[in-house]
From TrEMBL:
InterPro entries per record: AN1-like_Znf (IPR035896), UBL_ZFAND1-like (IPR057358), Znf_AN1 (IPR000058)
Gene3D superfamilies linked: AN1-like Zinc finger
Name this protein carries in UniProt: AN1-type domain-containing protein
Alphabetical UniProt keywords: Metal-binding, Zinc, Zinc-finger
GO molecular function, one term: zinc ion binding
SMART domains: ZnF_AN1
Pfam family, one: UBL_ZFAND1
One cellular component term from this protein's GO annotations in UniProt: cytoplasm
Region of interest (Disordered), ranges: 65-98
All residue ranges annotated as the AN1-type domain in the record: 25-73
Naturally occurring in which organism (per UniProt): Viridothelium virens (Speckled blister lichen)
Amino acid sequence: MAPANTTEPSTEEQSFTKMAAADVDSIGAHCEMPFCRQLDFLPFRCESCRGKFCLDHRTESAHSCPHAGEWARRKRDAQQSSTSSSSTPKPTILNHEQQCSSPSCKTLINTPLTQGVHCPNCNRHYCLKHRMREDHDCANLVPIGARPGQSQREKGIAALGKLRAWGAAKQKSLGASMPKVPQSSAKTNAAAQFKALNDLKKTAKGDGKVPMDKRVYLHVEASADTTIAKHPSGAFFYDKAWSVGRVLDVAAKALQVQNVNNRVEGEEERLRVFQVEAGRLLEFGEKVGDVCQSGNTIVLLRGVGPAVPDLIEP
């Protein structure tokens, strides 16, 4: 016979736990709106007054929030503070001795990654992007170490001396290349000039579309400081109707001379055409056939100022 205190197992199996009625109120929250007090298991919290409300009274206007707009003001102030802190410029090295001299560039130069380039005209150092004269506005810069009060005057004197040196040297070289004959032998002298002109025509290069009767054959040279060509001279022919400016463009391209005439305003970087025989700079608008004859010599010079006649003393 079984013991009296043995409990018989329940015939009804349960798969859930019963919750006391008092525990229901601990889930969710009652709406804090007076006369509502609805129990909401997922209540809404007002960020302005920190109260909890049901779906119908979740907005500030619905529950007459005493701190209406407080949450929006806090959010706006936080955004402005974040924007002002992010817009603070990062500190840059403005006076680094190895910095590119271009005012708009902060690149550090002469480093293992960036090589610096020295400009001999303005005596400054630049990065590879601003190494060219037109890229760092070299024509409008006063060279470091120069005397500003005398810079323009010194440049004018140097340009005049440069022109005179070219004229004297070229006239001397042309005279030395001609055979010495007695002045009475006019026929012999004319024959020598005719032969020299024929030799020039045989070696001259130019646009083959120019008719033979409209060609002017010239010796063209460039000063050493204007070109990168190994042989900055040559014999060329041009159309007599071409302007001096067009001849300059074609000659500069042929002799590998950097031509920035259409990008600069000052005369320091501008190319000019100097005619040795006439001893003057030619105007860009003059026709080459009117100011030059076949066999003449023209020279491309930079930074010699506007065209001034009779700079070379006879």
